[in-house]
Amino acid sequence: MPLIESPIFDCEDLSVFTDQERSLARSLHADGFGVIDFPDPEIDARIERIKRNLGPVFGIPLDDPAADKTRGSRRIQDAWQTDEDVHAIASNPVILDLLSKLYGRRAFPFQTLNFPVGTQQAAHTDTVHFSSLPERFMCGVWLAMEDIVAEAGPLFYVRGSHRWPIITNAMIGRRGYGSELASAQDPYASAWQAMCEADGKVAEPFLARKGQALIWTANLLHGGIRQTDRTLTRWSQVTHYFFDDCIYYTPAFSDEALGRFALRNVVSVSGRSPKPSTYLGEVVQNRDLRTGASWKSKFAGDLKKGLFKRKSP
Questions:
Q1: Which domains does the chain have, with CATH numbers?
Q2: Which of 22, 117, 203, 277 has the fewest Cβ atoms nearer than 10 Å?
Q3: Cβ pair 225, 153 in contact under 8 A
Q4: pLDDT tens sequence across 92-125
Q5: pLDDT tens digits for 46-68?
Q6: Helix 19-31 × helix 93-103 angle, to 10°
Q7: CA torsion, points 120, 208, 111, 253, in degrees to nearest 10?
Q8: Is-contact 76 113, C-beta < 8 A?
Q9: Model's pTM, two decimal places?
Q10: How many CB atoms lie within 10 A of CB 95?
């Protein structure tokens, strides 16, 4: 499992970490998130170019200070494919080395999201959208591209929620494989809410300043607070990262107990190349994962061969 999520984290050897890295590792382990200044001397110039290049795509009157900024499109996915500054932020070598050190496997970015305003998204964890086997080898980095005020609908997180069990389809009694959902996170909302209430957890806003970045773990509950001033922008970039030698899939549309996985076709943003799912170095494809039917057939055959025997009472 990731170093920062290890149950024996307090016994792990962090001697190769700098003081800053050690403090960040402890924050990620205890709270599920950590804050850093984004390590790029050109970050201000990149931010301004991204705003200029992507701004017209959103269909928002960004130049009118009195206009409602929430009426247009709220995000652009994978702008790294056409915007070199988005690509450079996602592929920042210092961030890649840092995440690799914190997790114990080599990190690579696989998705970018760019926002001109807040998402106002309900509390959720990324584990229902993208996960890995082994679990938890996924994280996000959210970069503030301007100073964020409370009225702009800031990002929020639920401190320590990453330590809760990962909610799966099996736990909430639904079938995921082959299903269709308007929102992949909706089926799990009541479970997350119940856990917050039982544990007395509340959402905390992240009032970031321009150039700050929040690193969060895969199972941390987070979202966007309601925007009370619709004339404000809240420019940001999210980059999601996986780690080497894992199976990459979408749990919301999978039934792990039956061997039915919605595998993701992952591309490394930094390398601009496919990253196949692997298990202990062996490439895994959909045909390698058992369907419920093939598993049942194999199990029935093994029963006939006497490989499974009923124990006497």
A1: 3-304 (2.60.120.620)
A2: 22
A3: yes
A4: 999 999 999 999 999 999 999 999 999 999 999 9
A5: 999 999 999 999 988 888 999 99
A6: 60
A7: -40
A8: yes
A9: 0.90
A10: 24
